[in-house]
Amino acid sequence: MHLAIVRSAFYPELIDEMEGIAMSELINNGIREEDLTISTVPGSFEIPLECKRIIETEKIDGIIAIGIIIQGETHHAEEIARGCTDGIMQVQLEKNIPIIHAVLYVSSLAQAKKRISRAEESAKILIEVLSLRSDAT
Prior knowledge:
By secondary structure, the chain is an alpha/beta fold. The chain is built from 5 helices and 4 strands, in the order βαβαβαβαα. The longest helix has 20 residues.
């Protein structure tokens, strides 16, 4: 089984922590580190395109998308969050590969810090989804 983590470069300290948490959970569930592809994109808006590229160029069974979008004074963050979410859904439906959404859309960095456990939940969800898929075949 080959999995990927696609992550945003924004807020690298928190993103690094989320990546580490997700990787640890995957490894604890039997995924070998050499079977994990890690890819970093400039921002969360670029995550869906990179997911699609990885699926089309590598043998990937599932992906965890990790990012942080913080709402500012304008609606820009909302547009980025919606585009990222819609793009992730479009790619996973088009390619029939699960992409677990761990892109946090929050009001503040403090709120993001409180929600980094989403990375562990996402790894567990990916393992469960892949298990269900293999049971169905």
